[in-house]
Amino acid sequence: MKKNTAFKNSLSVVLGIISVIYVLPVLVVVMNSFKKNTYVKTDTFAFPSGDMWAGFDNFIKGMTFGNYPFALSAGYSVLITVASTALILLFTSMAAWFIARVNSRICRIVYYLCVFSMVVPFQMVMFTLSKTADTLKLNTPWTIPVVYLGFGAGLAIFMFVGFVKSIPLTIEEAAAIDGAGPVTTFFQIVLPMMKPTMISVGILEIMWVWNDYLLPYLVLDRTKYMTIPIHIQFLKGSYGTVDLGATMALILLSIIPVIVFYLACQKHIIKGVAAGAVKG
Fold first, then answer.
1. Has residue 35 been placed in a domain?
2. Rounded to whole angstroms, how far apart are CA atoms 92 and 207?
């Protein structure tokens, strides 16, 4: 008994240290967002005080830098994130239900292709994707969610299929006896039961799309549309100089919504992953 207690205490200490290591970069960003630019370079890990303290000047400078409004970049990020997540949740949940219930050879092939897409590095397809997006006119904030749907379908279908297989088929058979068609059965019976996995997948997809830099950078016309990560990347002055204080301030503004959202919904991630891990 004492050995188990000692092991648990040691494990808690190790995990606590690992947690601090993971949180440390965020703390560094917070500290440097309130420092003057010079001290960000020379005293990176020092707490902002005295002459180092810049107040909210970095935030104001970052949000007003250049000719492209930061509020517009934030608006595009919100639009792309919300639209992409909505498309992924709707279409992949329907596809997963069909795959799990029909279970034909074609459905199994589609399922394994979706799972395989999870291990394909984005770098392998990014240049072809950029060309295809330009050809199909998917290079705007209103159309790029279609591209995100393709990349986010793998994980979503994998989790949804696992959850659907855990739903008793008798419930859907009873609905069919009562005269419910496939559409009614899915939206009124199956979809509400998929809520734990829907929330889990939605959280993961929101965090991915909101923080994504490479896909919008390759696909969008950067002279017209910028997301927050792209806006931060272009925070440069003459001769390529970068105001690190303003950059840290904008990075902090971009990660606060995701951190708050994740902390509020983290319990649903565990529930959704556990629900989608059922073997059929």
1. no
2. 18
Residue 191 lies in a domain: yes
> What does DSSP assign to residue 239?
G
Number of domains in the chain: 1
Rounded to the nearest 10 degrees, the angle between the axes of helix 195-211 and helix 144-164 is 150
CATH number assigned to the domain comprising residue 120: 1.10.3720.10
Q: pLDDT, tens digit, for every residue of 70-107?
A: 889 999 999 999 999 999 999 999 999 999 998 889 99
SS3 31: helix
Helix (H, G, I), strand (E, B) or coil at 236: strand
Centroid of chain to Cα 189: 28
- Tell whether 223 is covered by a domain: yes
**Which range of residues forms the domain containing residue 158?**
72-275
**Residue carrying the six token digits 């950059």:** 247
Q: Is the dihedral of CA 107, 112, 114, 115 positive or negative?
A: positive
Please give the Cα distance from 166 to 156 (Å, whole number): 16
**Each residue's pLDDT tens digit, 170-210:** 888 888 888 888 889 999 889 988 888 888 888 889 989 99
Q: Tell me, yes or no, whether 177 lies in a domain.
A: yes
**CA 60, CA 22: separation in Å to the nearest integer?**
28
